[in-house]
């Protein structure tokens, strides 16, 4: 599946304003069969973090669509949570299927 995604703003009937549309460049499609968790960063950074059964955590830039970071924790990941910091960066918590929480 490919194509452009646009956002359209409509106005009320009878006004002089025209319809506005803008292209949304930060749409990604991620493939994977073992993805079980995802977190989205949007305040300071624009990124999607995914993880899953293979214990691998991948971070993708939603603007450039490039892979930013990959790391492995050695256990199946069941959940992800992120906290974005005002000065930049973020803290990530990964919960594993065996009950551990890894902070990075």
Write up what this structure looks like.
This protein has one domain (26-103): Thrombin, subunit H (Beta Barrel). It is elongated and about 60 Å long. It has strands spanning 6-9, 20-23, 35-41, 47-52, 56-61, 67-72, 77-84, 90-96, 101-103. The strands form 3 sheets. The protein has a 4-stranded antiparallel beta sheet, with no helix packed on it. A 3-stranded antiparallel beta sheet has the order 7-8-9, with no helix packed on it. A hairpin with a 5-residue loop joins strand 3 (35-41) and strand 4 (47-52). The chain has no helices and 9 strands. It has 104 residues and is mainly beta. The model has no long low-confidence stretch (mean pLDDT 80).
Brief overview:
This protein has strands at residues 6-9, 20-23, 35-41, 47-52, 56-61, 67-72, 77-84, 90-96, 101-103. By secondary structure, the chain is mainly beta. It has one domain (26-103): Thrombin, subunit H (Beta Barrel).
